[in-house]
Amino acid sequence: MAKKKKAAPRKKAARPAKRSVPARRPAVRAKASVPAADGALLGSVERFLYRQAELLDGRRWDDFIELFTADGIYWMPASPEQTTGDGVPSIFYEDRNLMTVRMKRLRHPHAWSQMTAWGTSHLIGNVAIETDDRRTGELVVRSRFHVMEFRHDATRHFAGSYVHHLRRTSDGFRIKLQRVDAVNAQGPYEYVLQAWL
Amino acid sequence: MRNPLLTDLARTVEPDRVHRTVYTDADIFELEMDRIFHKVWTYVGHESQVKSPGDYWTVQIGRQPMIMTRADDGKVHVLYNRCPHRGNMICSERFGHADKQLICSYHGWQFDMDGKVKAIPLAQGYQGTRLSVDDPACHIKPAPRVASYRGFVFASLAAEGASLTDWLGPAKIAFDDMCDRAPAGEVEVVPNCFRVIQQSNWKIFLENQLDAVHPSITHESTGKAALEVEDDIKRRSGKAPLDYHFLSAFSLPLPKWDGVQTINYPHGHCILQAYMGLRPRDPDTLEYERLMTKAYGEKRMEEILNVGIHHVLLYPGLSVQPPLQQLRAVRPLGVDKTLTEIWHFRLKGAPEAIYRRALGYYNLVNSPSTMVNADDLWNFWKCHQGLSSEGGDWVSFHRNAGQDDEQDGVIKSKLGTSEAPMRNQFRAWSQYMT
User: Fold this and answer.
1) Residue B378 maps to a domain
2) Is residue A16 part of a domain?
3) Is residue B301 domain-shared with residue B355, that is, in the same domain?
4) Assigned domain for B236 exists
5) N or C: which terminus of chain A carries fewer CB neighbours within 10 A?
């Protein structure tokens, strides 16, 4: 990508007002969305998210992990109020090394609980680019997901929002941070999550 | 068909085997509720869950929905979650803060946090009736007995019985070992509770907790996967975070587990000795040990850090891992359905790095994305299904039966892989049930 000489002056993001009582779910801050003219960018972001979903449903774990930057993190917070996964309980807080452990386990011939019919279907929608920092090449993308899982004659559903912090690289987008907030993340789990949502 | 053993439960438990129906019979489960869960001390929560007056947490004891509250005088109370008027549940949220009082959403009866009635709308309507507003029947009923040990609150629904410390006996080391590891001598809850439901009888979970044979078989996949990545990280950068060791420790070869002794106490409580080696020599640990020495002196610090326990099981409802400051409370929901509530604690006065280290275990082993319990829960379900079969009546606990050392009711297993903890749990079960 050609280096822009003059970066547009960035507006300082407004700090959210401090609340005395934390909101149960943080409200989505209205942000100036990326101009509609940039439909091509939105299209390429959407294709990237669809591809990630396909990799999960197709159990192509290696390729799934490859979508993350070397320091990329997959994070599923323990509660929607959390603003970082660092040093707090999380359902998932995995870098590529921990993701590799999970992948190797899923593929091990003695991963006993994997020896049953298991499949997932991801649907991604409501994709919106929240910020596009041309200077750093980083994008923040919000979307909604619905995952239906069928495992050993039982069906489960998980649905909620993804926030992808994407970096532009010579190989296309890579994920620096993926935040996963399922609306039912805090309920009791019938069984556990063996793979990423 | 009704289980013929229901009227003769003594016949369901022998010293080295038990009848399969103790896991699968819904009538026996109901008797367990009455004779065990409504009698023993049940872990309710930690005092720091209800830090300020007005705070509450709801909890299930046996079949009973209860509330733990903090009253204005600072005391912790455990109450039945039921309005004395028409029986409406008082607290419908799992936890929260009541501003000044508990209010019933149906007819507005108001209560202090200790359950005492404070105001009844249209109180004059009770004049001349059999209910007077100063009648104790107008208060929210409290649990008959509530006691706390080092901040861990228990309640019993039976008015009579052994005191909490007598009932805990030597197994109270679960809390001593955890709290002593804090330079300030106490722990504080991390305000997050993971909840995982198992499709199996509660006893299957408890038996698995101290079963030293299963890790290298059930958790082979996770142990090996973590070991590969751990070795790879070590090759690349010299050392790997303890997170990988938490998982790779499950790949210890089977004979190694024989060296991990279990100690089995009255009331079914048991201890599994340490095997993870959680005292590395990194700068964070050395700083922690410096603070511990400052708080306790060197000799006591050494004693505390060398206690060497991995798990303490407080039968029938609590599994504690003191050196990692976590616990799992077991709430049976039905004969084939069990809820575990999973908590983590901070050592007061310890460096942040020590908390973060144990947090890795909480996230990787005890969260709903656990790579470890994924295979346990699968086994539990399969166990429950297999036990429903009439392909055999008895469950075997014969390994090393008769070979353990028993003194004054305390049974030390000869080998870590002895089925002594299961035999000990059923010794307690028989005492409660028959």
Assistant:
1) yes
2) no
3) yes
4) yes
5) N
Option in B339, B362, B374 nearest A113 (CB): B374
Strands A118-133 and A90-94: unpaired
Residue span of the structural domain in which A53 resides: 36-182
- Interface residues of chain A, partner chain B, Cβ below 8 Å: 76, 78-79, 87-93, 97-98, 100-105, 108-114, 187-194
Specify the higher pLDDT residue, A93 or A114: A93
Name the closest residue on chain B to residue A196, using Cα atoms. B369
pLDDT at A16 over 50: no
CATH assignment at residue A79: 3.10.450.50
Residues B335 and B227 in one domain: yes
Helix (H, G, I), strand (E, B) or coil at B4: helix
Q: A101 vs B375: CB contact, 8 Å cut-off?
A: no
Q: How far apart are CA B77 and CA B70, in angstroms?
A: 6
Q: In what order do the strands lie in the sheet with B42-46?
A: B42-46, B152-156, B145-149
Q: How many CB pairs under 8 A join A and B?
A: 107
DSSP reduced 3-state for B318: strand
Q: Any idea what the CATH number is for the domain that residue B56 is in?
A: 2.102.10.10
Lowest-confidence range among A23-37, A53-67, A177-191? Answer: A23-37
Q: Closest chain A residue to B337 measured between Cα atoms? A: A190
Minimum CA–CA partner of B353 in chain A:
A87
pLDDT at A21 over 70: no
For residue B402, the model assigns a pLDDT of 92
Give the closest-approach CA distance of B11 to chain A in angstroms.
34
Q: Hey, of B371, B383, B385, which one would you mutate to test binding to chain A, going by the most A CBs within 10 A of its CB? A: B371
- Alpha carbon separation from B267 to B164, B168, B174 (Å, rounded): 12, 8, 15
Classify residue A162: in a domain, yes or no. yes
Task: Write out pLDDT tens, residues B157-195.
Answer: 999 999 999 999 999 999 999 999 999 999 999 999 999
What is the extent of the structural domain holding B124?
42-156
Query: Which CATH number is B189's domain given?
Result: 3.90.380.10
Nearest alpha carbon to residue B396 among B184, B213, B131, B197: B213
pLDDT grade for A12, boundaries at 50, 70 and 90: very low
Contact A112 B379 (CB under 8 A): yes
- pLDDT surpassing 90 at residue B268: yes
**Rounded-to-integer distance, Cα A67 and Cα A149, Å:** 22
